[in-house]
Write a structure and sequence with these properties.
Largest sheet: 2 strands, antiparallel
CATH class of the largest domain: Mainly Alpha
Number of strands: 4
Number of domains: 2
Order of helices and strands: HEHHHHHHEEHHHHHHHE
Distance between the termini: 30 Å
Strand order of the largest sheet: 1-4
Length: 365
């Protein structure tokens, strides 16, 4: 009788983790998700009074149709890629670093200190190296703070890193309105970096894209071939298991979060010296949050992040094009990007889990 009552309380639909799923089926699910996202987005475009095929074609051409727009697409992809790799270091050990935005900002500020106030003293090469080291160190130390607090007192890293974003943003506002305000300006802004101190361009884009490719290779080797990478994976599986295996979990937290923050700080330096040439409230541009999507879609694989970051950069660049060409509102263009990413992220759920109907233990839905 009690067994029947227990069975009656079983939910209509429940989920269970899949044991294995072939690559063919996984990619089939991803393909269906992409198709559904394009169909859903097409309905939105139709509702706006435009031809979906024309709009989607313009998005692709707007990202890859000429050498100029290709350079712009790559410029968007570079910070996304490096930040995603940085965040993935923390995520692989289940340390939820939501502070990429703040780490980018402090990296830009640290680089900006030397770029804005010593450009007339130092030659270009030493100055660029100094800005890079400053950005890396500042971002690393900013990432170190929540790691130390988690290791010592068990604080919640999600809230901690999120709040640090707002502190960094408030500091930039203070600099814009106070000590770094451009001389003679009635508007709160920071002066531009001197042209002689800006990053050299290679094939029309600052050399950060080359550095990003190098980071992809190095991070892949670090995570999969080194002892430190193995420790990150073990800590990510279970802190207790890691301790039982003799791994110093606190040390892994601190070391890995410094690397995570340092890569984000490097992005801040690249944005300051290679793209924006100044520091504003939008220096991070939402990259720290979008990079989380990149990392998850790529399943923390650096080579996968390279593909996904370029894909998202294409969407963002294409969205700018359709705003101009079809007079589509920016909010609607962002909605199209959101729909595509929603379906692509959602499909990963069905790759990892299956839905089971009441009374059908083994049937996948």
């Amino acid at each position: 009788m009690s067994a029947e009552k227990g069975k009656g309380k079983e939910p209509l639909i429940r989920m269970a983790k899949r044991d294995t799923l072939s690559n063919q089926k996984a990619w089939c699910i991803r393909g269906v998700a992409l198709l559904l996202s394009l169909i859903t987005g097409g309905l939105v475009i139709l509702a706006l009074g435009h031809n979906p095929f024309s709009v989607y074609t313009s998005m692709v051409v707007g990202a890859w149709g000429s050498s100029t727009v290709i350079r712009e697409t790559i410029k968007i992809a570079v910070p996304l890629l490096i930040t995603a790799i940085g965040i993935s270091f923390a995520f692989k050990m289940k340390f939820w670093n939501i502070g990429g935005e703040g780490q980018i900002i402090v990296g830009a500020v640290a680089a900006g200190y030397f770029g804005l106030f010593t450009a007339h003293i130092l030659p270009k090469v030493p100055l660029v190296i100094l800005m890079m080291l400053a950005g890396i160190l500042a971002g690393g130390l900013y990432g170190l703070l929540p790691a130390v607090c988690k290791a010592k007192w068990g604080t919640n890293e999600t809230l901690f890193t999120l709040m640090l974003n707002y502190i960094a943003l408030a500091f930039v506002k203070y600099l814009m309105n106070g000590p770094w305000k451009a001389p003679g300006s009635s508007f709160p802004k920071i002066a531009m970096l001197a042209p002689g101190a800006r990053l050299t361009k290679v094939l029309g884009v600052h050399w950060g894209w080359i550095l990003a490719l190098v980071i992809v290779v190095i991070s892949s080797i670090y995570l999969s071939k080194t002892k430190q990478g193995y420790e990150i994976a073990v800590v990510g599986e279970s802190n207790n298991t890691a301790r039982y295996a003799g791994i110093n979990v606190s040390k892994v937290f601190i070391r890995t979060m410094f690397i995570s923050g340092a890569l984000c700080g490097l992005v801040g330096m690249l944005q300051f010296a290679g793209a924006d040439y100044t520091i504003t409230e939008g220096i991070a541009g939402g990259v720290g949050f979008t990079a989380i999507t990149v990392a998850w879609l790529a399943k923390m694989n650096p080579y996968g992040m390279l593909v996904v970051s370029v894909f998202i950069a294409m969407l963002e660049r294409g969205a700018n094009t359709i705003q101009t060409q079809f007079k589509i509102p920016a909010s609607a263009a962002d909605l199209l990007i959101g729909i595509i990413l929603f379906f692509m992220l959602g499909c990963e759920f069905f790759i990892s889990y299956r839905l089971i109907l009441r009374g059908k233990e083994e049937e996948d839905v």
